[in-house]
Q: What sequence folds into this?
């Protein structure tokens, strides 16, 4: 936290001093009101130069024409974006503190580091050293765009990782930015579940990795009601909660709940956190017009988080008893040296669904009906009820 504020202060001073460089007599306040927005002259080297007439503004490469510094970098002038406050909130977020920015290899850096994500979005090969956590410039490009609109809201294709099941297209407005990282990663095609296979005793699946799951960032799939293993003859019909099709969520996506006005820098906003030890649960987003309204008083709406956790615990016990789940690492008991062989192969769907719902981390909130249908069918399969 200390280093974050030192860095922010240094960058702000550097930018503001650059703004005044061509005319020290002009204050940062004046330089934000006197600039002719149509001018963008070049210096003698062909690079960006200062504004015309020595007005005290220096343009930087890639910066939007007529950009001003003070509206964002001077607290008493920032009455639009409140950048400083949002940076404090971000510093309490999982993006800042728990995004595993150390995972900066080529395959991981594009979502675990800000530098990798920017390279991915701008079409540059992702090779990242000295990486930093996901920060402001991953989601926004204020210097180039001149505002804090989102860097991208393009729909995102989500891998199914189940043979014969098509990939899904996630299109939830602002939430598309979130889904550009909160999505599954590929697993070996030879170890994908195949609903089309028979259930004969000689039909097996051989799992050679203890990380036999799509990822930890599966929230986009859960919200859509995609990605779980579905048996055609399971006792519980597969269905989705209203979150999947609600107009507000289709437009705003994750933002409507996770970034509603929060309590200081503890919840909501750029913390994206929905509960804190100090203030408890933040359900402001749940009460958005067109959603739950004032009747909702807890995230455990109608006891659905309690139900999800009960089903997860029940399935966990069954998987441990079967010898498929390592309770210390919470991964599959599998490796290339000692593969996990499951017969019939579709029974492994119970292990797949356990990881799928557990890694979502919402305890069923994102899509209660879908989560619990998958869990209850998985429990029934492990108990040989169908």
A:
């Amino acid at each position: 936290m200390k280093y974050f504020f030192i860095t922010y202060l240094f960058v702000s001073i550097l930018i503001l001093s650059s703004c005044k460089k061509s005319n020290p007599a002009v204050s940062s306040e004046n330089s934000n009101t006197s600039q002719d927005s149509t001018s963008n002259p070049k210096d003698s080297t062909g690079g960006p130069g200062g504004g015309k007439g020595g007005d005290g503004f220096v343009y930087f490469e890639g910066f939007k024409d007529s950009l001003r510094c003070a509206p964002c970098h001077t607290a008493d002038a920032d009455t639009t974006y409140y950048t400083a406050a949002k940076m404090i909130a971000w510093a309490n977020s999982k993006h800042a503190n728990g995004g595993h920015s150390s995972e900066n290899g080529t395959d991981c850096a594009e979502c675990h580091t800000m530098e990798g994500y920017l390279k991915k979005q701008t079409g540059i090969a992702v090779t990242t050293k000295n990486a930093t956590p996901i920060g402001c410039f991953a989601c926004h490009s204020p210097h180039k765009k001149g505002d804090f609109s989102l860097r991208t809201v393009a729909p995102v294709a989500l891998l199914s990782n189940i043979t014969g099941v098509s990939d899904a297209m996630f299109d939830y407005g602002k939430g598309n930015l979130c889904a550009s990282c909160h999505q599954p990663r590929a697993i070996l095609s030879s170890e994908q579940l195949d609903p089309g296979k028979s259930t004969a005793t000689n039909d097996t699946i051989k799992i050679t990795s203890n990380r036999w799951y799509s990822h930890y960032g599966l929230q986009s799939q859960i919200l859509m009601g995609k990605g779980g293993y579905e048996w055609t003859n399971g006792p519980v019909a597969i269905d989705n909660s209203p979150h999947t099709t609600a107009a507000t969520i289709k437009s705003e996506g994750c933002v409507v709940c996770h970034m509603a006005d929060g309590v200081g820098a503890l919840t909501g906003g750029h913390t994206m956190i929905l509960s804190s030890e100090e203030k408890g649960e933040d359900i402001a987003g749940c009460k958005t017009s067109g959603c739950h309204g004032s009747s909702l008083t807890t995230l455990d709406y109608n006891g659905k988080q309690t139900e999800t956790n009960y089903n997860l615990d029940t399935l966990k016990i069954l998987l441990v008893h079967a010898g498929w789940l390592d309770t210390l690492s919470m991964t599959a008991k599998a490796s290339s040296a000692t593969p996990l062989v499951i017969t019939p192969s579709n029974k492994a769907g119970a292990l797949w669904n356990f990881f799928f719902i557990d890694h979502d981390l919402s305890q069923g909130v994102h899509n209660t009906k879908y989560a619990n249908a998958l869990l209850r069918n998985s429990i029934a399969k492990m108990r040989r009820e169908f």
Remarks:
- The longest helix spans residues 2-20.
- The first strand starts at residue 156 and ends at 158.
- Residues 13-57 have pLDDT under 50 and may be disordered.
